[in-house]
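Hi again,

Forgot to attach this to my earlier email, sorry! This is the prediction with manganese (II) ion bound. I've pasted everything inline since the attachment limit keeps bouncing my files.
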Amino acid sequence: MKKSRLAQVVVNLKEMGLGQGIISDPFSIYYLTGLAIDPGERLFALLIKGDGSATLFNNRLFPLPEGEGLKIIYHSDGEDGLGMLAEALADGPLGVDKVWPARFLLPLLARGRAIQPVLGSAAVDDARMAKDPEEVALMRAASRVNDAVMAQAIAALAAGISESEMVGVVGDLHVKHGADGALPQLICFGAGSSEPHHESGPATLQEGDSVILDIFAPVRRYWCDMTRTVFYRSVSAEQREVYEVVKAANLAGLAAVAPGVPLMEIDAAARRVIEGAGYGQYFTHRLGHGIGLDVHEPPDCSATSTAIARPGMCFSIEPGIYLPGRWGVRIEDLVVVTEDGVEVLNHYPKELQVVG
Ligand SMILES: [Mn+2]
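Structure tokens for the complex follow:
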């Protein structure tokens, strides 16, 4: 067990008026126990009680080491694992993870116990938002991998290569540099770069293309995520102007990060730069997202975010301008909030580059 993390979740549950909570997100269970499995459709749930006890309900197909402070109750296929969990519950309010499937929760309620389920995810989400030093070190190491991969990926841009081929190049580079696996990446050429969530396909690299490389992977389970935009062989005056606006917005966002600052103000700091340059309507998404064991996790860094920056929080700063049907520019870095400001986790340069 990760005892200090568990203690924080117990405190959070108590502040929510909860003496018990079910955590089922495998990433949250890993965060608290150091144990990772992919349970598929089978019951996998960690019951945390106000006294600090932790009991994992797990299928016998996934044997796990029973560590100090963690009890594991196994069921086999065909056994009533949910009944074992029900027996361990106290009557009264029960915090339930937002991702616990209805196929478990509804039959549990149908057992007639005097349980009142409430959304309890915040107890663990809030703890996960502020990374501890061990996690910050892992986030830093993951982004170092991404910096190295970005340099080699940009060097691999060549006449006629397709977006899909570049996806493979980046995935291979991630694995070579120590990522946990090769994933589909967001590589966008030309008109594809005008779509923030473009699906990489057969488009081939052409002179004058805006090239967005949004690359990401877990490294020892913690995610990196960075975006750079380069131009292939030539760049227009308009592309240059938009690039510098997005870069200034990225830098304004980074500069706004400090403990105590509402994340909506960080979004606003970057957005103001883009609006001031007359491109506000083309910045069509939030400034950033939290990141850690999940590639997207709390806190949200948007105009409606209620989060306030505190030390250990990790999130992205990724302003973009997308001119519909033409091209786009996005520049993304990850940050960690420090005691007195910000540490930017990515170091790959942001000066405008014409490559090839
Ligand atoms: Mn991102």
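The pocket of manganese (II) ion is lined by residues 225, 289, 316, 318, 332 (CB under 6 Å). The chain has two domains: 3-128, 130-355.

That should be everything now.

G.
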